[in-house]
Amino acid sequence: xxxxxxxxxxxxxxxxxxxxxxxxxxxxxxxxxxxxxxxxxxxxxxxxxxxxxxxxxxxxxxxxxxxxxxxxxxxxxxxxxxxxxxxxxxxxxxxxxxxxxxxxxxxxxxxxxxxxxxxxxxxxxxxxxxxxxxxxxxxxxxxxxxxxxxxxxxxxxxxxxxxxxxxx
Length: 168
Known about the structure:
Layout: E1 21-24, E2 37-41, E3 45-50, E4 56-61, E5 65-71, H1 74-78, E6 81-88, E7 95-102, H2 104-122, H3 127-130, H4 153-167
């Protein structure tokens, strides 16, 4: 005979993971944590929580992360913060940004160590080590507000024709 389960209870308790690092997105001005974006790092996942009234929480499993890039603008350096861009094979969030956190280089080093440990534990190997994978476009710092001029091939041909015809 099976035991009845009351609403809101669980039959098995999962062990709580120890949080190894926790921080909040900070304002660039003075590096103060006056935002509602929180980051948590455990041995197996990176959790990004956003929002106050409407809550959005996403977990990225560490063994699925393929690259971590570190950015630090002059303003970030002056305020002791930095930004990390995490590229993963996660379907819901293939590119996650850990924006304006304290000690970003230490966070990146801890994250890279935990990624390697998680891959080793799961027996997962990165495809770039084997020689697979297509090249991807360069990652742009979300804090960078400069826009790069990009011309489509058809526009370049038009410009080339007009320069050529105008000179004749």
